[in-house]
C-alpha cells in the first residue's frame, strides 16, 4: 500500500529533507540499485524507473528524428554565447517533447563536451568547442543554461559535462595516461570545467576513459579536490560506458572488480554506466565490496543522494509544479527551431580567404563539385535528420536550378576477379531503414550489424559500375548505382544495403592492398577480405584478387563541369563516420589525395574556383590557399547546412564565423598526439612559436571594421576594458571583437596572448558600438608551482583588441601590483617532484592509487629543472623519496650528488627515503636527473646541525 503523502512528496519541504526521507524508506538493495545507469522503479513507493544519460551534443541524439544543429566545433566557430544558449533551450525543449511520447528519452543529458581542442588530429575534435579554455567555458555556460532552463527550482534537463579530464586521444584511449603538470592542469584543463560548474547550470560530469598522471579518471582525486569544491550544489558523476570494468580488464589498475567499484565510488563516481541495461553486474560488485569491507553504507547513501538530487530538480516528484512538464510534441521541430538551425549554420561559416571573388552576383553560373557537394553528413552524436539541405540543394534554390551544374568527382569503377565481374543483383527496391536505425530512425544496437534482407553481391558476366571514394588514410567506400553503399552484415555477406556509412563499427569501408597485378579488398570493420563463395560475395580470412577498371576518373567529370561555368565551388572535407571519430584519431592534416586532385582539376579548368571545406577538423591546405581566390570552412552544419552556405556565397549574409582552433600549416608543426604539456611543447595559439596557416580567431567578412579608444580601469579586483567598434563598410554585418591579454616578461613562460573576452555583434553599415569587458584580476594569473597556489605576478600586461589573435587593431598596457613569485623555500618545505619548472624526457605518474603524483623517465632517462631554490644559509644532505629502482642525481652549479640504486625490491608504491651528502646555500637552480625505472615523489634537505645555534 502506497503511503498517501510521505514527506518526500511534500513540495513545502526542502529537497535535502525530502531526500533524507526518501533514503530512509529505501532498502539497502534499492539504494544500491540507484547507482546503475538504468535504475528500476520502486512500486511500493510509487517511484518510476530512471536512467542517466541522453546524448544531446547538438540536438537530441539516438532517439529518432530531431532538429539537428551544427556540430559542436561549429558552434565554437560562432563565438556567440547567446546563440548557443538559445540552441541549448531548443535541444532541452525537444528532449522534453520527445519524452512526452517516448519514455526512453532521458532528461539527464550528457552534454556538452568541454574537452579542449588541444590537438587537431584528435578523433573526437568535432565534439569540442575550442582549443581555448575561456571560449570553451563561455560556450559551455551558455549551452548548459539553455538546457537547464531559467526556473529557480526546477530544471528543463540536467546537463553533464564530458569528459573529465585531459582527454584528447582515441588511440589506446582506455590505457594511455595524459601527463599533466600542475600549471597545465590549473591554467588549462580544469578551467574549461570550472567556469561552467560555478555558473550553476551543470548537474554533473562524466570522467573520461583515459588515465591522468598514471591514474584512471574514474578514480581521480580531482573529483573531490577540485570539482566538488567549486559549488555547493550536489553534482552527479556518471561513468563513461564500460569504464568501471576497464579498471580491471584493460587498465589492470585493480585486481578485482569489487576493489575497482569501491575505489570509483569513494573517489566520487555515483552512476555506473556498465553492461548496458543490465544492472545486476554492477549491483553485484557493490554488494561484494560492502561484504568485503571496501565500502560502507554511508558511501552508498552519498551516491544515492546525488542521484535523487537530480531527479528532484527535474520535477519528477512534483509534476504539478514542474514548469516544463507541459512540454508536448507541439514543441518539437517547430518553425522557431528550424529557423534557429539555419541561423546557427550561417554563423558557423568561416571565410578563410577572399580575393574579391565573393559574394557571387545574381545569375552567376556555378559548377558545384566535390564529394561533399550533395550530401548532408551527420556524426555519431547526431539525431536523425527530419529535413536536409545539401550545398547543391542550397545553391539551386538560391541561384536557380538552371544556373547550377553538379559533378560529384567520385571515380567510376568496375571490379573483376577470376570468376567474373562484381555485380549487385537486380532489382534493388526501396532503401528501407538506414543501417543501425529502427523504422522510426532511432539508433538500434540490434541493427548495427547491418541488413540481411537484401541479396548478397555476386560475380558474373555483367559488371556493376561503382562509385569509388577514397576518403584518405586507407579508407574506401563503394556505392552502387542506386545510391546505397556496399556493407558487410553480421552474416559476413557483402550487400549494397547502407544509406550512408555509419554505426559504432563502420561496415562500409574497405582498404586496398596491392597483390601482384591486382589487389585485395580488406574490410575495415571485420579485418577480413572480400572473397567469392558459392552463395555470394562475403568476407573471409583469405581474399579474392581483384582488378580495378576505371571507367572514368572523378577529376575528368570535374574538369568538364568547371570549364562550362563562370565560377566553381569545390566542396571537400570528411565523413564524420570514417576519418576522425570516436575510437579513431586522424593521422594527418592533409586533405585526402582524391579531394586534392579534384580542386586542382577544377582550378586548372577555371581559375575562378573556390574551395569550401565541410569538415569536423582543420586541414593543412597551404597549396589551395596559395592558388585559389577564395576558401571557406564550415563544420557539418546540420539540417540547414546547404541553405546557409548558399546565402553566404550570395551575400545575403556576411560571414562572421571565427576559427575556434589553430589551423597549422603542416603535420611537422604538431607535437605528439599524447603530449599534453602545452607549455613545454608550445602547443595551441597560447604557446605556438611557428607560423600557422590560419590563426586562432581568424575569419573574414564582406564588410570592414575599425577599432578605437581602448581604455582600461579598475573596479576593485576587476579590470574594466572598453573600446569602440565601427562598421566602416557598406554592408550590415556581424563582427567578432576579441580581447587578449599578454604578460610582458615575467619569471615563467607565459602565453604569447590569451583570450580574455569576446563579443559577437551585428552592426549596420556606418554604425558603431561601445563594448565593455570586465576581467577579474585572477584571470591574469598563473599557478605558482613554487608555492602551490594561484597568483597574479606583478608587472606590465598588454591589452590587445582586434579581429583575431593575429589581427590586433589597438593595444594598451597596464601595470599590475601583484604578488611576486619568490624563491622556493626548499630547505624548510622540500620539493614535490611534480612541481618542476621545466622537464625533458619525463612523465608524471601516480604517487599512490588514491592521490598524489610522482615523476619517472618517459623512456630511460629524464631531467627536471627547479628554478630559484632557496637553500638559505645551507644544507648538508638531500633526502630522496623514490621507488622502482634506477638512480636520481641532484645538481646545483657544479656539484652533483647521485643516489643509486634506489631500492628496486619494493612495490610500485613502496617509496623508500634515501639520504646522501649534498651541500648548497643561497638561491640556486636545481637539476634532478632520473635514470632507469625510478619514480620520484619528492626531495627534502637536511640543515647543518649547527645551523639553528645562536
Describe this structure in words.
Keywords: Hydrolase, Signal. GO terms for molecular function: hydrolase activity. The chain has 950 residues and is α+β, with helices and mostly antiparallel strands. It has five domains: 192 residues, Alpha-Beta Barrel (TIM Barrel), CATH 3.20.20; 183 residues, Rossmann fold (3-Layer(aba) Sandwich); 126 residues, Trefoil (Acidic Fibroblast Growth Factor, subunit A) (Trefoil); 114 residues, Immunoglobulins (Immunoglobulin-like, Sandwich); 118 residues, Jelly Rolls (Sandwich), CATH 2.60.120. Helices cover 20% and strands 28% of the residues. The protein is built from 19 helices and 50 strands. The strands form 15 sheets. The chain has a six-stranded mixed beta sheet, sandwiched between helices. Strands 16, 17, 18, 19, 20 and 27 form a six-stranded antiparallel beta sheet that branches. A five-stranded parallel beta sheet has the order 3-5-6-8-11. Strand 31 and strand 32 form a beta hairpin. Helix 1 crosses helix 11 and helix 9 crosses helix 10. The model has no long low-confidence stretch (mean pLDDT 95).
